[in-house]
Prior knowledge:
Blueprint lengths: L34 H12 L5 E2 L3 E3 L2 E3 L9 E7 L2 E11 L4 H20 L2 E13 L12
Parallel strand pairs: 5-6
Antiparallel strand pairs: 1-5, 2-3, 4-5
Helix pairs in contact: 1-2
Protein name: Putative alkaline shock family protein YloU
Organism: Pseudonocardia sediminis
Amino acid sequence: MSSPNVPAARPGTSGPGRHRADTAPDDRGSLSIADTAVEKISAAVLDEIDEIGGAARRVLGLPMGSDHAEQRPRVTATVSGGSVSLDARVSVSYPAPVAATADRARRHLAVRVAASTGMQVTHVDITVTALTTPARPTHRRELA
Length: 144
């Protein structure tokens, strides 16, 4: 029994009020992901690696601030169609091996960004701007 105010569902649809695909998939349009969205995804992906930290913003090659492990890495993404090229500026926590850490970050970034965005990652540059040391706990000496 159907209500006179609610249209009946067509076969193959979920019912009234649901999205219906009346056009062929090739005719529906496309989805584009902005460079800045890929940059934020990439920075979050690099945060998953313990030895990787943030890099200070630089003007004319000079750091504006300091490199900290607690900051997010800086990533620039260039999206072209269904592919993306990434350039990341990071710091590495001492005593982690710099080259091995950068290689691991490069592989991890390519795999995770491709999985998250559906884009092919064509190029990943990792620039290590600084080595950071873990924060030292402050030791207080009590006088008796």
